[in-house]
Design goal:
- This protein has 2 domains: 164 residues, 3-Layer(aba) Sandwich (Rossmann fold); 95 residues, ProC C-terminal domain-like fold.
- The protein is 55% helix and 16% strand.
- The protein has an 8-stranded mixed beta sheet with strand order 3-2-1-4-5-6-7-8, with helices on both faces.
- Strand 2, helix 2 and strand 3 form a beta-alpha-beta unit.
- Helix 7 crosses helix 12 and helix 8 crosses helix 9.
- The structure holds NADP nicotinamide-adenine-dinucleotide phosphate.
Length: 272
Amino acid sequence: MQPSPHQVGFLGAGKMGEAILAALIRSGCCRPRELIACEAVDARRAEIRRRYRVKVTTCPADLAAACDTIVLAVKPQDLDAALLALAPSLARRHLLVSIAAGKTLARLQELAGPQARVVRVMPNLAVAVGEGMSAFALGSRARAADRRWVARLLGSCGQAIELDEPLFDAVTALSGSGPAFFAYFMQAMADAGTALNLPPGAARLLACQTMLGTARTLGETAQDPAAFIQAVCSPKGTTAAGLAVLERSSVRNAVGRTLRAAARRSRELNRG
Ligand SMILES: NC(=O)c1ccc[n+]([C@@H]2O[C@H](COP(=O)([O-])OP(=O)(O)OC[C@H]3O[C@@H](n4cnc5c(N)ncnc54)[C@H](OP(=O)(O)O)[C@@H]3O)[C@@H](O)[C@H]2O)c1
């Protein structure tokens, strides 16, 4: 296997590893022959090879030999051992992109050794459908070209934003855990629709598509949500009647407490 700047390796090809690998292929960012997955589970390895026609291996040194960029996609509790096994094969040409929740840049650099550059990423589950939200922070050795490459890599799975590492607990709360919070609200909308006699399947479709359409409208027009609400809320109309209840129920306050609790938990987990 010849090293190439376009070869991307995955250490771990579970849910997130597969989602990112699939997005790279789907978006055209990488071709299957430019990808290699190192995966411990035999059945999973076979599945990844069959689905995407990428090279697979059980040996971390194969990744280092073939790739300049290695996505670290094992569970946080497996990362130290996995990275220590990889470290002896790492050289100056390697860029490590970690998606492990809570693993700091300092810890990643310590495990990787002095040569490789590291980047920390917090993605979310929506990378699986190409609509992920990923925040990234560069390690101290990373270069300007790494910033551009990582932004392109993550951009092929959705949107990417560079943020300072101390903000990662807030990122974890908002976009990392966010899909579950939005799903909670969507479920509540669908259940409330069912209580108004809509068939459950129809209520779910109405809630899901309305959430998707609203997100796309606000995202694509960069419209301020408050201005959007004002525009769709005619005086004494149906939307105004519903919004008055939302305001009285302190939903805004509950959302604030929700994110603070998630960020606090992220800080606790990071302290180990
Ligand atoms: N899921 C999310 O929503 C989400 C969001 C943001 C970030 N993340 C991060 O994404 C990372 C991956 O999460 P995931 O949900 O994709 O985990 P996962 O489904 O458990 O995938 C990890 C895979 O890597 C394998 N593995 C473990 N050690 C290995 C090694 N040394 N060499 C090769 N393969 C190895 C695991 O095998 P075994 O099953 O045998 O251990 C498993 O198949 C985590 O660090 C997590 O913090 C996840």
